[in-house]
Structures are given as structure tokens and as C-alpha cells.
UniProtKB/TrEMBL annotation:
<protein>
    <submittedName>
        <fullName>Transcriptional regulatory protein AfsQ1</fullName>
    </submittedName>
</protein>
<dbReference type="InterPro" id="IPR001789">
    <property type="entry name" value="Sig_transdc_resp-reg_receiver"/>
</dbReference>
<keyword id="KW-0597">Phosphoprotein</keyword>
<dbReference type="GO" id="GO:0005829">
    <property type="term" value="C:cytosol"/>
</dbReference>
<keyword id="KW-0238">DNA-binding</keyword>
<feature type="domain" description="Response regulatory">
    <location>
        <begin position="2"/>
        <end position="117"/>
    </location>
</feature>
<dbReference type="GO" id="GO:0000156">
    <property type="term" value="F:phosphorelay response regulator activity"/>
</dbReference>
<dbReference type="GO" id="GO:0000976">
    <property type="term" value="F:transcription cis-regulatory region binding"/>
</dbReference>
<dbReference type="GO" id="GO:0032993">
    <property type="term" value="C:protein-DNA complex"/>
</dbReference>
<dbReference type="Pfam" id="PF00072">
    <property type="entry name" value="Response_reg"/>
</dbReference>
<keyword id="KW-0804">Transcription</keyword>
<dbReference type="GO" id="GO:0006355">
    <property type="term" value="P:regulation of DNA-templated transcription"/>
</dbReference>
<keyword id="KW-0805">Transcription regulation</keyword>
<dbReference type="InterPro" id="IPR011006">
    <property type="entry name" value="CheY-like_superfamily"/>
</dbReference>
<dbReference type="InterPro" id="IPR039420">
    <property type="entry name" value="WalR-like"/>
</dbReference>
<feature type="modified residue" description="4-aspartylphosphate">
    <location>
        <position position="51"/>
    </location>
</feature>
<keyword id="KW-0902">Two-component regulatory system</keyword>
Length: 134
């Protein structure tokens, strides 16, 4: 599966990327919203892992753009914010699949990603040998 990770914390972004690559996913990383939007247009990801708050801005605009560019892509928001404590985020972001609170439980995140892969929506996982799928 092609995954776009938008996370402004370099340590967490590195850990997420490592976990995803070890599981055979192709990962594109961004630390800011403009880079994430550029990558979204370039790589057409199957899954977006978006830190909800990137500095003073929120990443909902990236998910909105994904809704037009890659409408079948799933979005998992990662947040330490209490900005949407009662699930209101699902009303603002039509393609939000899940919201995962920080600190991240990597087992829970992996289970979510596995579920997305089994759902049949995202079928572009990289082969274990690292070659490009045909």
C-alpha cells in the first residue's frame, strides 16, 4: 500500500515510516502541509496518516484535497489535540476513517492499517522483495 505520512514531530515521523516500511508499505513523508499536498499529487497514496495539528494549522485541508485527487484513499488522523473531543472531526472531514489519539499505540495503528488492506480498497502493497508491483 502507498502511504503518505504527515507528521511534524521528526521522531514520530521516523518511527511511523520505519513501522510501515517493515510491513512492506511504500511510504512518502512530509513535515508540513505544502509538502504533503505536493506528495499527494505525485504519489496518489492509498492511505494518509495525518497529524491533525501541524503547527497552528490543521491537516483537514490535506484530507479534503485527497478527497478530490484520490477519493478512495483512507485517512487516519493522529492527534494529541483536544480540538474535536466528541468525534466532530468526522463531520468536517468526509474521508476520515479513524482518529487515533497520541501517544500512538502502534499495535492499534497496525491493526487499522491491516483492516484497510483487507477491505480491498487499497491493493497496491509493495512486494516483500521491494520490486515494483506490475
Amino acid at each position: 500500500m502507498k502511504v503518505l505520512v504527515l507528521e511534524d514531530d521528526p521522531a514520530l515521523r521516523f518511527a511511523l515510516t520505519q513501522m510501515l516500511e517493515e510491513d512492506g508499505h511504500t511510504v512518502s513523508e512530509a513535515a508540513d502541509i505544502p509538502t504533503a499536498c505536493d506528495l499527494l499529487n505525485e504519489v496518489k497514496p492509498d492511505l494518509l496518516l495525518l497529524d491533525l495539528m501541524i503547527g497552528p494549522a490543521d491537516s483537514i485541508q490535506v484530507a479534503d484535497l485527497a478527497g478530490y485527487r484520490v477519493p478512495d484513499a483512507d485517512v487516519i488522523y493522529l492527534t494529541g489535540s483536544n480540538k474535536f473531543p466528541n468525534g466532530e472531526l468526522f463531520g468536517f472531514s468526509r474521508n476520515a476513517s479513524w482518529v487515533l489519539r497520541k501517544p500512538i499505540d502502534f499495535y492499534e495503528l497496525k491493526a487499522m492499517i491491516d483492516h484497510i488492506g483487507r477491505s480491498g480498497r487499497s491493493q497496491t502493497a509493495a512486494p516483500p522483495d521491494g520490486s515494483t508491483p506490475s
